[in-house]
């Protein structure tokens, strides 16, 4: 199994979700995140005091998949997340040793 | 306050219109303290929101009681040497007749006492904005009690009490530019010079956590201020209170626009915090002056105050004092500007016949105003610094550095302002026992199945 993690622009969430559903993914986890890469933050002013806000809001999407589907699924996410502008984010995958479905106790790919 | 002059033939009679109006004004002024709490509360970081709200609310408790016990007597009792008042009948407000009137006034003394009570509550609360994030709540409560007793009650007597030195000199302070705003602003400066800066001042970002709360608070202040200002004439028989009402609106509008314009030119944006701050700066500046100027004069006073206060809030970074929410920059500077501008913009045709420099008068009114400003500022600054020093050396003014960093809300109040977590709670019964893991791995499912 693989864990696919995507850190992308928040407003792409619906597109990505739809693309994943079309691909056959039945569940995912979304976290609100913040960070920066090449895209930098902005400046805010409060009574003349200027603050540089470095961290840009992002969402972090996590999906568990079987090994064979991983590469294809990454392509699906990248395609749905892309706007072509700086700050589109990153997608990566890492191997996962095991997974358990809490309700039934099923293990491995059955738990997906 | 109107002068207490009574011609022999004019025995005052109780006016139910004025009495009703003044009771409503008293309620309006009461609303300013919660308004101020939200104005300040939105400006601090999340971790000290409740503390900021409570620093204002506690004044509603403490000062109300002190005012009844002896505050009214010290502020408005029989004059002793121009410095304080004292009147046995006023202790506990026990000796006041139900319909007792003072010479020249048409509202019962009870009504005057409760109207003035709301001013006494608001003024210490104003100081709290400079002390954000870092003060022990017990130390603050003690400070409020001592400061009201030693500073506010006497200064209210100087400025508004018959026989008070500033009142007799001819200082014009219609509704409290001197007694309330300069007084509170100078006190704030005195205290922060003693207790020092917040941890991380000038280094860490200290952004307002909720500008909508700030706007709400500014709106409540603006609304309540009509009672504060127009009510300070204590009645409506000669139209002066109505002029004050108009000027309050006009100067506030002008100051808000002036602050926004300054900000747009200087920093490139019209900010909501700028709009709220500009409005408050205008309200402060028109408080002493609105009963002596024309509406056009009010536009000028508001605009001048808006720009000067917008410039003044930057001084703390230059000089390194941590006036956290700009009590000095807005209330002290706004109060001084408004008080001194009386010497320029008084028309001589509203609350009395004193004329300012722009209306053919000489510099004498400006001199009186400067004396009132300086006397109040110096006294409040020094006494407040001494009070803070004494409290700091006995029970300590500040929470520990660790507690300050963790947040004064949880340490001093055992609460958090907001619960953002969706985790925890939930007692739904289990529908099935947790199954044991299968002994052998199940065969691979043929269908593609992806889940997380």
Automatic annotation (TrEMBL), chain A:
Keywords recorded for this protein, A-Z: Nucleotide-binding, Phosphoprotein, Transcription, Transcription regulation
GO biological process: regulation of nitrogen utilization
A GO molecular-function descriptor: ATP binding
Coiled coil: none
SMART domains: P-II
A GO CC annotation given for this chain: cytosol
Residues annotated with O-UMP-tyrosine modification: 51
Source domain of life: Bacteria
Subunit structure: Homotrimer.
Name of this chain's protein: Nitrogen regulatory protein P-II
Organism: Streptomyces jeddahensis
Highest classification ranks of the organism: Bacteria, Bacillati, Actinomycetota, Actinomycetes, Kitasatosporales
Name of the gene: glnB_1
Automatic annotation (TrEMBL), chain B:
Role of this protein: Involved in the uptake of ammonium/ammonia (NH(4)(+)/NH(3)).
Domain Ammonium transporter AmtB-like, chain residue ranges per copy: 21-418
Location of this chain's protein in the cell: Cell membrane
Protein name: Ammonium transporter
A Pfam family the protein falls into: Ammonium_transp
Stated family: Belongs to the ammonia transporter channel (TC 1.A.11.2) family.
Record key words, sorted: Ammonia transport, Cell membrane, Membrane, Transmembrane, Transmembrane helix, Transport
GO molecular function list: ammonium channel activity
Subunit structure: Homotrimer.
Span of the signal peptide: none
Source domain of life: Bacteria
Region Disordered: start-end pairs: 419-452
Transmembrane regions: 20-40, 52-70, 107-127, 139-160, 180-199, 211-228, 240-262, 269-290, 296-315, 327-346, 366-391
Membrane protein topology class: Multi-pass membrane protein
Feature: compositional bias, Pro residues: 435-444
GO CC, one annotated term: plasma membrane
